[in-house]
Predict the structure.
Amino acid sequence: MAIAGFGEVVEQLRRSTVLIRADNRGNGSGVIWTSDGIIVTNAHVARNSALSVRLWDGRELPAETMSRDPRRDLALLHINGKDLPAALPADSSQVRPGELAIAIGNPMGFVGALTTGVIHALGPLRRLGTQSWVQASVRLAPGNSGGPLADRQGRVIGINTMVADRLALAVPSNAVRQLLGAGASDGWLGVSVHPVRVPRRDGTCFGLVLLDVEPGSPAAQAALL
């Protein structure tokens, strides 16, 4: 069933989505959060010191890292700009299973790629700790990280982060508001992980594959990798 005005909603969301480049290479996506240049993305996308942001109109601007919170996998960048097409955040606590979900990003070199699905759940995953996730049946690929997960009105309900059990996991938009208001949270290990199924004789269980360790983090100091 066609949704009235869906094309306009998607186009506006695309204009609010940016390509984040590190060392002149495509690295991930981000969301224009304010019209004066605050960009929200994942912390694992914004690990490099030399970052640039490519806007929907082709302009590429240097970006400064304002704040990084590896525990919540969020980062705030800033670019010099004004009257930028900022996204409209939604209250992620109001998300309900079965609602339409829209993801925009730059996977594998495809700028502004669109994928849709439905909300599966909102809450923590047992094997990933107590952090809450917006879980949706949208297809994500490398390059989608940091891009928006939005509702049918194009309002951002989360920041796409990773895939687990074939579901896209996004950091809720309310966590972004908390980061903007309070800064980075305390207590983090400084690792990137990916959930996997581990077959056992007494049944399948879940584990975590260690992908990366943040330089200078507690994990690095403990020689975890």
Observations:
- The longest strand covers residues 113-124.
- Residues 184-188 have pLDDT under 50 and may be disordered.
- DSSP finds three helices and 14 strands in the chain.
